[in-house]
Amino acid sequence: MGKKRKRGSIHQLKPPVTYTPISLALKKSIATGKASHDSEKTAIPKTTKQSTLGKSKRKLKTLNKKRANSHLIGVFHMLNKQITLEKELGNAAEVAVLEKKREELGGIHAYQAASVIGENLRSHNTSRWLVKELLARGLQPKDKGAKLTLLDVGALSENYSKEKSWLQVTAIDLNSRHPFVVQKDFFDLKHNHEQYDIVSLSLVINFEGDCKRRGDMLILAKKMLTKNGLLFVVLPLACVDNSRYSTRESMKDIFAFLKLSIVKEHYSSKLAYYLLSNKESTEERPTTRTLHKRELLRAGKSR
């Protein structure tokens, strides 16, 4: 028998200082006959390392953007609440100081820009949840050319462009940043009774710091709905689960007080969704709550 051929070692290949890509290393080993598939040491491609590092940096950058935007939005809401409270107490000097701080943040323009960025980073728009629920309930008109009328309050952009064939949308905002969105105050539409099949108040009510105007907003939205129309309300989850004046049950009491029935409610990690019908609920919820007065429901300085 001939001598047994000694199996080559990967260390005999004399690799360069930097790793070469796997495919190139494999070609070299086959050409020299000094390494087999079994003995080849798998090298991590340099391009893979760079790609992984790049992804990590992008994730960190995205995370920092989210935190910065969330902080700005949170501070803006806090200042709005403080300004409303000081106005109620008649402290004009303190109101001026707080309003100056709000402007130093960038005012409404900075707030809207942060909202747009936050929406893009979430890769989710609350309008998608509403559309999904409308389709699930078979509410898309069957007749050709027929459309549901929808009032989108506080719109930052054209949220329902994909549904143009069956939704006739009127989008409004106090400070429009998009050509499709009409610059108008919601309360200027007080005579538009029974005009819309759907009214959307997505992340709008929480922006209003005045408790009375929040109640008036809900009352006006209901008046704008057609018979059996739908009201879509979205709030930050903290406004429901971490508020001194609001809980999940108290929200249901408010809707019952307005004679609105809950079609569906959903709570994500950040938001509370409510789809409400103008058809009065048969469920009886005796309540003494009022829309225009704060009632302490939870204690705690952190709330």
Could you characterize what this model shows?
With 303 residues, the protein is of the alpha/beta class. It is built from 8 helices and 7 strands, in the order H-H-H-H-H-E-E-E-E-H-E-H-H-E-E. It has helices at residues 22-32, 46-89, 92-104, 107-122, 126-136, 211-224, 238-241, 248-257; strands at residues 148-153, 167-173, 182-183, 196-202, 225-236, 261-267, 271-277. It has a 7-stranded mixed sheet, sandwiched between helices. A hairpin with a 3-residue loop joins strand 6 (261-267) and strand 7. Helix 2 runs antiparallel to helix 3 (92-104) and helix 2 packs across helix 4. It starts with 21 loop residues before the first helix and ends in a 26-residue tail after the last strand.
Helix fraction bin: 40-55%
Order of strands, widest sheet: 3-2-1-4-5-7-6
Compute the gyration radius: what is it?
29 Å
Average of pLDDT? 78
- Judged by helices, strands and strand pairing, the structural class is alpha/beta
Number of strands: 7
Q: Total number of helical segments? A: 8
Secondary-structure element pattern, one letter each: HHHHHEEEEHEHHEE
